[in-house]
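Lecture 7 notes: from sequence to structure.

We start with a single chain of 387 residues. Read the sequence below before looking at the structure.
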Amino acid sequence: MGDELLDWFAESAVAAFLCRRDGDDVEIVSRTPECTAVVGPGPGQLAETALLAGLGLLWPGIDRSPEVISLPDAPDWQCTLQALDDPPTSWLGILRLTTARQRHNEVFFSIAQALPDIVARLDRNHRHVYINPRIERETGIPVQLFIGKSKRELGLPPDLVAQWEPLVDRVLHSEEPAEEEQQLPTIHGVRTFLTRVVPERSPDGEVRTVLSTSYDITQLKSLQQQLAELARTDPLTSVLNRRGFSERIEAELARQQDGDGQLSLLLLDVNDFKSVNDTYGHFAGDNVLIAIGEALQQEVGPHDFVARLGGDEFCVALVDADATDADAVADRIRRRIGGLGPGDRCPCAVSVSVGLATATADERTADLMTRVDRQMYREKSSKSGPA
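Now the structure, written as tokens:
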């Protein structure tokens, strides 16, 4: 009978328990998930020692009639006891907060239940004392299954556990708030959450639980990434701009200085580009630059990168290419650009002057750019027509 009653109270989300006398002590035999959530060491919870002490103190006066008792060591709580047999050997207990405390708790509960963030309270063993409904939308696991269990005990993915437990432990140890971005697996795929964990102090000043909030920032991170890409991309040609190029070059030179690979640069300048603008207009000139950018991207390898440094000047970085490899690519690019025509949105034939330089050990970006620039102008000066 007792277990059936407890199952009914569990379905109704009531904090109930079955208890019996064990010599001079009171023993709780089983409890509902809601009871597991409210009985514990954290702020707002009923300490189990206070519950057992109160029951033990008042037990001699308890008979078969339902009785509402106050707990001397837990004035915020009341317990209703009902004997389940005759003579009474086991009892059903139902816990509830006093009216004033209930109102306070209801405010927190109402807010937490309605928040779009994941809100949870965890004890020092990482077990959930409370968690709001948002968790079910992200994991597909009913809220009630979380109560009294840790993420590890629930069998959640190891990478999720590996991110959560150190963060909670850090807050419990330092007793200071902490936050971090976490890549968490959900039923919608891997999402990025900003998780903040704060310590909660019990009346005796001890930190026995933490409160966590996890806000889904996946869209925000995607927008930030898009903005970062835009900040590094030339809007006309869609190749890297000077800023994006500088960042990539610095990274490649650092890799080379660590003894990993080579780096060669090609610097291109469109010959007589001013006459293209003067004769056909700036719109046509823009189309020429777009066509050159597309041609360069098609002629380089998957690890190479192309940038427009400004005006009609482009740079190609050839990763893991020595001078011989770079010279072959430069010849191929000259032929490709020389073959552009109306089908490529070019109103006239165009050509480029190309400088080539291969980075030496410990060479700085500025020095490498100076060398390749000189090589480009040396080729340009050997050709007829203004720059």
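The chain has three domains: 2-102, 115-221, 237-381. Keep this in mind for problem set 3.
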